[in-house]
Amino acid sequence: MAQLTMIQAITDALRTELKNDENVLVFGEDVGVNGGVFRATEGLQKEFGEDRVFDTPLAESGIGGLAVGLSLQGYRSVPEIQFFGFVFEVMDSIAGQLARMRFRTGGAFNAPVTIRSPFGGGVHTPEMHADSLELLMTSTPGVKVVIPSTPYDAKGLLISAIRDNDPVIFLEHMKLYRSFRGEVPEEEYTIPLGKADVKREGTDLTIISYGAMVHESLKAAEELEKEGYSVEVIDLRTIQPLDIDTIITSVEKTNRAIVVQEAQRQAGIAANVIAEISERAILSLEAPVLRVTAADTVFPFSQAETVWLPNSKDIVEKAKIVLTF
Amino acid sequence: MVEKNTSQLDPKKTLQEIEEKFEMFQILNEEGVIVNEQAIPNLSDDELVELMSRMVYTRILDQRSISLNRQGRLGFYAPTAGQEASQLASQFALEKEDFILPGYRDVPQIVWHGLPLWQAFLFSRGHFMGNQIPEGVNVFPPQIIIGAQFVQATGVALGMQKRGKKAIAISYTGDGGSSQGDFYEGINFAGAFQVPAVFIVQNNQFAISTPRELQTAAKTIAQKGIAAGIPSVLVDGMDPLAVYAVTKDARDRAINGEGPTLIETVCYRYGPHTMAGDDPTRYRTSETDSEWEKKDPLVRFRKYLETKGIWNEETEAAVIEKAKEEIKEAIKKADAAPKQKVTDLINNMYEVNPYNLDEQLAYYTEKESK
């Protein structure tokens, strides 16, 4: 089995689906000859031709519109939005058009589109590149939102996303692109959307997280283990829809939980998870469910981001409050 | 000695020269007289009669729709009178396999392209079945977000190009729509990819109440295509022969691999913006209205066809009768559509319902059974 970085696993998934289905198209800004600014589409234009993998003019709404229109001709588009901070330029195509295609037409048309986009802090980008804007997407009925945390998951989830007959927003955390390698099978495999993964089992506390914060959570779990606590870590992998069963089963076992997100506290992914827990499992809880999040400011300028972003120490601190409640 | 090149030091002159080149293309003048013999499109007498019939039919449809709306029997409705040549003569230049992406005023084109009238009425009433486009009818539901249809049309046309289809995507917006970012992105992408698309801007002089001259400093909307590097035409949008000719020409070039075209049809909407409370007397005078009414597409086309001896009062009366009858039938059919349920809508969010919608489906199934 190959040891791949997450970016390589993503390229592998794109290659797999370009090979499997001639209706799959990959396009966006600089995805052709350049292979994407992060090289996610490295070599794909050469392998599959300019008809299948192509550069677009620099305009996100135009890219979104292409995806809508290509759906009407039976294509399965995988456009790249170069950085997710640019999503505001393509919000109508996502929320006003793609997300409503099936609904608006009573099922006559659908939009099998996977929008890939890098996001996430810790890599010292200029403004509007790193923001966690996934809440904008989870507030949009009609799309699914996937955020992988490992190379293995990235490949299996991206293949599932491309094969899905509804629009999927596939967000790739920039810090995870090359920070470590993981085992990725060469053959194709899928990981179902809407299914969380228990990344570590434990009995005293459940940490629910996604994206880069999964790794901070795992670090925190190790720290806590040294102090005698057995901590379970759930990687949501899909934040819309949530995998309620996995969350509730775990909370019913551990009776204590915290939710960790890189996004601002007011971006309500964690809030939603907590609401679901309180509606479905409040009698299992021995302590309030707390959140570890970033502050409710705009994503900070890069010199302040390491402090602004939640880390394993913040998680350990919150975990202890819940564990000793 | 090297001669100094100062041509670019007079950018105003460049602009002026470009703007002067956009003369309004016309074939049939307001009096119903041919003013451009060479450009007369190749349409048989039967086709001319068919186009006139559709225009008369659609004028009746507009009148009936307005009155049905006033009776509370239709919902959202954007009047079309005055724009028949712009809408129907352009659609008349299409083939069945061409794909229309309409704005919300462009319901007539998609009806003549195959959407059953009863479904158009359901769209007006806010029933999802109105947008359930039947298999083989190449149209998209009317777009509500002004300009979004232009970026999408480029996507449809790109798909056609990739499939090697001999067909085009055609989209409509208005003078207001030409101020949208999506207008520019749509025509620019279309030019960059050289896709088979035709973009029509129906310049009906007002975006709700905002007059054309407040939209842009550009003398014409047609000239905006130049910046995208695509052929552009300014046409009398109340002249059905001219609209047909330029659309047909644009379609032929698109099919021939020569890329997209932007067409500005200069026209006028006689009625309000929509039937939801717009009052045109707040922003335009009855003098202006009557000036434009003199240019009426039906009046001039009727004169032309009467002179040719292929149209008379009886022909027209028969079309009106047919229109009224079919509208009545379509309303009856729309009335017979099942009541719209929230459960139907829930089931159209995703191919498979996630847990939350499954739970909500159960809730609304119970609620709607009471």
TrEMBL record, chain A:
Record-linked Pfam families: Transket_pyr, Transketolase_C
Tell me one GO molecular function of this protein. oxidoreductase activity
Tell me the protein's name.
Pyruvate dehydrogenase E1 component beta subunit
Record organism: Psychrobacillus insolitus
Q: Which UniProt keywords apply?
A: Oxidoreductase, Pyruvate, Thiamine pyrophosphate
Is Oxidoreductase one of the keywords? yes
Question: What InterPro entries does this protein map onto?
Answer: THDP-binding, Transketo_C/PFOR_II, Transketolase-like_Pyr-bd, Transketolase_C
Q: Where is the Transketolase-like pyrimidine-binding domain?
A: 4-179
Q: Which SMART domains match?
A: Transket_pyr
Cofactor(s) needed by this chain: thiamine diphosphate
TrEMBL record, chain B:
The leader peptide range reads none
The answer on whether this UniProt entry bears the keyword Electron transport reads no
Please give the InterPro entries that the UniProt record associates with this protein. Answer: Alpha-ketoacid_DH_E1_comp (IPR050771), DH_E1 (IPR001017), PdhA/BkdA (IPR017596), THDP-binding (IPR029061)
Indicate the segments annotated as coiled coil, or none if absent: 313-340
Kindly indicate whether the keyword Lyase belongs to this entry: no
The UniProt record lists the Dehydrogenase E1 component domain at 53-342
Listed SUPFAM superfamilies: Thiamin diphosphate-binding fold (THDP-binding)
Q: Which GO terms describe its biological process?
A: branched-chain amino acid catabolic process
Enzyme Commission designation: 1.2.4.1
The record's listing under Gene3D superfamilies reads:
3.40.50.970
Record's keyword terms, sorted: Coiled coil, Oxidoreductase, Pyruvate, Thiamine pyrophosphate
Q: Which cofactor does it need?
A: thiamine diphosphate
Q: Which reaction does it catalyse?
A: N(6)-[(R)-lipoyl]-L-lysyl-[protein] + pyruvate + H(+) = N(6)-[(R)-S(8)-acetyldihydrolipoyl]-L-lysyl-[protein] + CO2
GO molecular function terms listed in the Swiss-Prot or TrEMBL record: pyruvate dehydrogenase (acetyl-transferring) activity
Pfam families linked: E1_dh
Quaternary structure per UniProt? Heterodimer of an alpha and a beta chain.
Q: What's this chain's function?
A: The pyruvate dehydrogenase complex catalyzes the overall conversion of pyruvate to acetyl-CoA and CO(2). It contains multiple copies of three enzymatic components: pyruvate dehydrogenase (E1), dihydrolipoamide acetyltransferase (E2) and lipoamide dehydrogenase (E3).
**Protein name stated in the entry:** Pyruvate dehydrogenase E1 component subunit alpha
